[in-house]
Amino acid sequence: MAFGRGKVILFGEHGVVHGRPALAAGLARGVTATAIAADADALVVEAWDLEVSPSPEAEQPLGRALWEVLRRFDGERAPLRVTAEVALPAGAGLGCSAALGVAVIGAVDEALGAKRSPEALAEACLVWERVFHGNPSGVDSAMAAMGGVAVFRRGETLVPIVPRTPIRLVIADSGETSSTMSMVAEVARQHERAPARIDAVFDGMAAIVQNGRLAVETGDLRSLGQLMTLNQTLLNTLMISTAKLEEMCSAAREAGALGAKLTGAGGGGCMIALVDTVARGEAVCAALSPLCQSAFVAEAGA
Ligand code: PMV
Fold this sequence. Notes:
By secondary structure, the chain is α+β, with helices and mostly antiparallel strands. Helices cover 43% and strands 23% of the residues. The chain has 2 domains: 158 residues, 2-Layer Sandwich (Ribosomal Protein S5, domain 2); 138 residues, Alpha-Beta Plaits (2-Layer Sandwich), CATH 3.30.70. The protein is built from 9 helices and 11 strands. A hairpin with a 7-residue loop joins β9 and β10. The radius of gyration is 19 Å and the shape is globular. The model has no long low-confidence stretch (mean pLDDT 97). (3R)-3-hydroxy-3-methyl-5-(phosphonooxy)pentanoic acid binds next to α4 and α5.
């Protein structure tokens, strides 16, 4: 059984596509997959009632992504049927596609008796991610394969960070789905039109990542919360938040969260809010319940 974990981006989404750092954390929830010998290669995702065959022309992107990863396995091999169990919402900013990719590649490795480091697994998942995201920074794949809390920068080795105190988050799904590919393309268009202005926003996010890292390492939850709210203000200037996400961020803060922001590509998806205790997290979940599809308390990097 292979596992790919979900992730949250604490700071730096979108800037990370353009060479700035991001601070991200793996989640205990993710995708598990197993591969068994069969008559033909296939991927079955029971939660989505979906079965795909690998093909470069498949209408369903999963079929194209499967083709991209399977064709990179060298030599003769028996066909494999991969079954995946997905415990993350898709298109919600929690890195579902990368978690699925890492789980699928890991399951095929296991079935073939192949050994691969977590870094190599993250790298192998990039071809899968390109099918869904066009121009992925690689942060989702890295966190899906390696987890923990870490600073990621495109093309560089992941830098693990050790939190001084547990980082407890409320993760709430707005129920609005969005496409990471189109959100990333929209921000890239803004960058093309006004490079100096958007670079200044990305540089602001990079400064937040550095300060956020310090806050994580020193256990300064109050600063960490303030930085999350500040990051949300910058994401807002890119016009990728939604009225619903804004309402959820305010409600979380009013219910005692230390800070809140969207996580991932935006345009919908999930909000994260920092809380000091699990009990406060439960209170924030209760306050959010009339506004969101689902909410739960999680420890970042657990
Ligand atoms: O929405 P998600 O979970 O795929 O997160 C995307 C994060 C971005 O920075 C917007 C894109 C990327 O590839 O880093």
